[in-house]
Nidogen 2
Amino acid sequence: MAARPRSGPAPPAARPVRPRRLRFPPPGRGCPVGSALRCSLARLRFAPSGAVGAVGGVPWAGGGMRAVAAVLAAALAVGAALPRPGLLPHGPARGDARLRSGDDESSPGVPLRPAPRLYGRAARRLYVGTNGVISTQDFPRETQYVDDDFPTDFPVIAPFLADLDTSGDRGNIYYRQDNSPDVLDQAAGYIQAGFPRTASSFVPTNAFIATWEDVGAYQELSQDTGPSRKLNTFQAAMAYNNEDTYVIFFYPEGSLQFLGTRPKESYNVQLELPARVGFSWGDGDDPKRDGLFHSLASSEPALRNLERESNTGVPGVWVFHVGSVAPLEHVEPGAGPVRHASGSADYTRTLYSRANHYSHADHASTELPAQHGSETTHPDHGPRSPALQGIVPKGLPASLGQERSRRLHPDGDGSARQSYSANPSFYSSGHHGVGVEEDVHFNPDEGKVLNPYEVWLCHCVPKPFPLVPVFTYSAASRETCAQHHERCSPHAFCTDYATGICCHCRATYYGNGRQCLPEGAVHRLNGKVSGSLMVGQASIRFQDVDLHAYIVGSDGRAYTAISGVPQPAARALLPLLPIGGLFAWLFAPEEPGSENGFSITGAEFTQNLEVTFYPGEETVHITQTAEGLGADNYLSLKTRIQGQVPFLPENIAVHIAPYKELYHYSSSAVTSSAQREYVLMAGTANRTLSYRLRQNITFSGCPHTRLLARQRLSVARAFTLYDSQEHVLRYALAAHIGSAGDNAENSPVNPCHDSTHTCEATARCQPGTGMEYTCECAAGYRRDGRGCRDVDECAEGLSQCGPFTVCLNGPGSYRCECRSGYRPAEDGQGCVSLAPVSNPCEDGSHPCAPGDRARCLPRAGGRPACECLPGYTGDGINCSDVDECAENLCHPAAVCYNTPGSFSCRCHPGYEGDGFQCMQEPTERPHTMCERWRQSLLEHYGGSPRSDQYVPQCDMQGNFSPLQCHGDSGYCWCVDESGREIQGTLPQVVAPPSIWPSPRPDVSPPATGTFLLYAQGQQIGYLPLNGTRLQKEAAKTLLSLHGSIVVGIDYDCREKTIYWTDVAGRTISRASLEPGAEPETIINSGLISPEGLAVDHLRRAVFWTDSGLDKIERARLDGAERRVLFDTDLVNPRAIAVDPVRGNLYWTDWNREAPKIETSTVNGANRRVLVNKDIGLPNGLTFNPFSKLLCWADAGTKYLECTFPDGTGRRVIQNNLNYPFSITSYADHFYHTDWRRDGVIAIDKETGSFTDEYLPEQRSHLYGITAVYPYCPGGKTHHKTHPPLIV
């Protein structure tokens, strides 16, 4: 995939601020009885390095920021959520680079030196993406990962993986590598709190910090909707040294205002996919590690608790061990006390594999055993004392560290006791980790939990004194930076003046403060050009043709291309170099004391240009309007050209000599006038002409900025050309801007400014004093005279390739490959032999039951796991047969036969079916004349007639089809009821034509038998079943519906017709499954977002939900007799199901505030709520006519549940779904569409296990699904052509 443009490099770190003194109460002075805690930020001061003092009477020591970090962490330890200041320092003041605004952006690779260990490999670069992710490689397009579940196809650190968007400068994303002591000390404190035993001596040498600040979810905006005000802030930090790597996630209090994002393909179907938080190894060279991942949170309850809970004891802070020189098979979560809202501790760890991820055996979890009382046993660290020694982060006073984990419970005698609890957690089958779960219990007797802002720094005050606010703001009539700093660029600072504010770009950036660009970077400009010109005597008009400009800011080269201008006008515009000259002035390199145009006007201005040609005095007016910076910092420009220009014949070249242009400046305008000559060249003949130029540039500038009165733009080279083959008009200039003093004409120009430097292409020219300059080399290159040459790290021994590797040098870098017969080692640098490791499952040394009852599952470096096969029960070592017949799984009209590991069902005589569903065999009627004649001819032809032989065609009732044909010859005629030819219909052709009409190309009739139909955007798919197994190889597209978005789908078993809703066309349609059938729209008005749909084959009625109108309606199958059943107490109705036999209707409403499942009769009577507790987003709903169970799939709780029609007997079938949309049932299986997997998932009804999945080749979201039987299930049928609409 082609590389996308990248943001500029990170600017150098800002100058450190001198620390100030941190004053504390004198040692030993606590709060006397009758006093209260009072806290204030106003007294917070930094102490110099080495200072010694006390906090709460406890000695402390350390550098300035380490002390502050200690106070902060200790303050947070009382159980409140992490406040915004709890994030690690970030932003432009800390030297952060800012990711450019947009929906799917990524940073350049940030080199890490030294390279940390991550997932068993060396991470030499890190990339930061808009969508809440960090990776060691460049990101694919967001459609390939943003809506999918873990694992990803590339390495990922995901503090909040979702479809985020910072377009329009809504939020900032910062990143940097850091080795400052204050940051490293604060990170070390959190890591030691999470790993008190194994990381007690861990000292990081470097850190990488990425911060997503006030970022929003992707949103499709319209004239009626503005951007959402819900914004998220979170941070990820990687701290490491030469041996270990840790990652910390930060979620301040109130920072997660939204928990999911809406897929771009959802159209007007209201859905949100929860964010994913965790880690994924991605595809790698080691197949054993391919697809591994660790999930911390992927459901709304878990995401909601990220701010409240922790594995370090500090709510909102999560720490993980992700790399080590020692073997580290998976991510290790912190083992400190997990802070819940109720104060309980929790520890979970899980590891998954992509291969066979539906198997129970693919999950390994470590649970913290519950230990109540004064001692808690942790799985890795042994017993821990009541004081939780070792948990206190480095630099924290012990008493405050203990306060984080101590809860006081009043006993009967008035004394206090300590208790520590562990809440064990478990994982079920499926591939979602549940790292945190919501704990809504809180014991008010456990003591007051202080607000974070109340515990920054506490001192004693008399008890009656109330707490005072930390921050106060005073309102003023004038604009201030406190109120309007958002007007400034993220790369600018705001300054208050007596009459208002101004913005100024920070170092390494330039602009007017409202828009700032990185110095020396390449800039791009996009725009449209329209014109109305008289070229000689011809009138020419053009509208919105494309303009593109490319500016090399380091040496002042500006290239402009305008495509699509009609040829006579394009040639006539060749002398008008000022069209491209504007960009040379905007981005010209600046001599000392000078400013280019962009530094004054920014990206919002208007240029008016008047050009008068001589000798003909033709005049043309040009208006160029800059409309700000768009995506990728591209400047957007509109150009309008009107007037008269001289005609230039073909084969004429235009030459413009170097020139200088004087600009005059005021606070809101720039003016210039000049007389410019140009030379027309045709072969050896030259002619010199001229024009007068007057230009005026208006802008909104800062009134407090002092501008030079005059400046001179020096154009060293100018070039203009029209490419007649590509129809492109081109301008090119090289310029710089400097002083307009008297000696400016003769003052020397630095070679970097006029491109006379001798730096080679691999080096950048950096101006110095006077005429001096330097040529700087990029990483991986070394100075070689005035240029740079590649460093051969392999030849010079600079690579980090390990044993048994081959080092391969490349431009600016190198790579390590394993020698033949070796594979990458766990450390990612060396290689190890491919010699096979002994596998007990293969050599027969395992303890599992025989292979016909159990399977052996190898485990890396340990004892293999044993698992009983389906149909057996036990621990895998001892497995016994399950008697399925005792569970009454067969149809009542069937006999069950139990067999080892399985069973079978067989219908009673007189019934037909597969044993799970049995239908009484219809009474055989006598053969009709058509059928007898057909059978006679088939026997005459030996059972296989030729394509040109006649065989009577009979319909389903045995009558003659009205149209009869001679095989496939196309020789056809019409017949009456007795099969006689109707006079005049026999064609008068001897030989039939070779080409005849065929069925519609977008209709593919299905085969007989049971199959599934699913909706996938613009098509309806066909997936046959073999028993209950998915016949994936026979799947195909049944019906293509271009321009539609099919959501709800159901089947009329009597007429063999499918019905569907279309949210794009706002219609309800149907189509027969007969060959050549064409879709027919039955409802085409009064719909906004029709979603769920159900067909009653007995009453010949169709029911549907409309989440746009919040209605439930019904009509006949042809769309007649339409009426509204319900239009009140509905918020987001989605799925709907019908029980034709009993005449009941069921539907879901996934109102986020009060989701529910309701029921009524099919005519709208007896409406009542069936389920409204413990549900989240009930997307899918199905009613099984055989088991009489109502079942639903919930994308919020991740549960598949069933209940009886009266709401009793509720039970959970599966508790670890991904993101289900629609569900149907057949035999002993459920089948649901899933938006994470983009496929059809099969689930066993009894065991709840995932048994199969089908992923269509074309990846897009699947919507509705239904099962199609070869017969109508249950109830008596009506045989009238138009039966009454029975209710």
Remarks:
- The chain is about 5% helix and 40% strand.
- The mean pLDDT is 76.
